[in-house]
Write a structure and sequence with these properties.
By secondary structure, the protein is an alpha/beta fold. It contains 5 helices and 10 strands; from the N terminus they run αααααββββββββββ. The chain folds into 2 domains: 99 residues; 120 residues, no CATH class.
């Protein structure tokens, strides 16, 4: 997730620099920061998508939230656009979930979405390369213990006011990273050296947690 760290560093340097200029009495720097700070949120979503090398639900939602905040700061709209946009985002998540299906024997699985409730999905892909799971005001469990990874695979996990649990078999090497925004993610798998072979398959979990959490473990709670 180097692009994310780089973007956060750039934002902090720019914001700090503008703050110093404002404290020194340079005219307009405070107004500039106040008017354009949502660009940092938009860039954060873009940096997360760049790190994942594709656009997934979590980074897209972060970028959309940034655009909504920017529209509000710039007064591009005459009314409150926040709730209509949130309805669009939730609707898109529902449609993504309706599109989902069980994939067996293929590398890529469709998105799974839990909305205002709970769901548990068991993936039995024979050559898993990528899948995704999302929880919006709910909880979702993605069980990969019956799946097979040849070398490496990606999971996009998105939690918005909810929780995502990813279950992996012992012997997989987990690489967990992402965007914890008023939320968090945690790797609770067995990481003992004796349990991981040098050629162990690698599962990259790209987590986006907005007021929610993503948990990777070997067994359910």
């Amino acid at each position: 997730m180097k692009p994310v760290r780089t973007w956060i560093g750039v934002v902090l340097v720019v914001a700090g620099g503008l703050g110093v200029l404002n404290a020194l009495g340079v005219t307009g720097t405070g107004d500039l920061l106040n008017a354009w700070w949502p660009v940092a949120v938009i860039g954060l979503g873009a940096a997360a998508a760049l790190a994942q090398r594709h656009v997934s639900l979590g980074p897209a939602v972060v970028a959309v939230i940034g655009l909504v905040l920017l529209a509000d700061r710039q007064e591009w709209t005459t009314g409150n656009i926040l709730w209509p946009v949130l309805l669009v985002v939730v609707g898109a998540a529902v449609l993504a979930g309706l599109r989902g299906r069980r994939t067996v024997g293929h590398g890529e699985s469709d998105a799974r979405v839990a909305l205002f409730g709970g769901t548990k999905v068991r993936n039995r892909a024979e050559h898993l390369t990528r899948t995704s799971v999302s929880a919006v005001f709910g909880g979702a469990t993605l069980d990969l213990r019956d799946a097979h990874v040849d070398h490496e695979a990606d999971v996009d996990a998105f939690a918005l006011f909810g929780g995502v649990e990813v279950l992996v078999p012992r012997g997989w090497r987990v690489s967990l990273g992402g965007l914890p925004i008023f939320g968090g993610y945690d790797d609770n798998t067995d990481r003992e050296a004796a349990a991981l072979a040098p050629d162990a398959p690698v599962l990259r979990v790209n987590a986006t947690a907005l007021f929610g959490g993503v948990d990777v473990r070997n067994e359910p709670k």
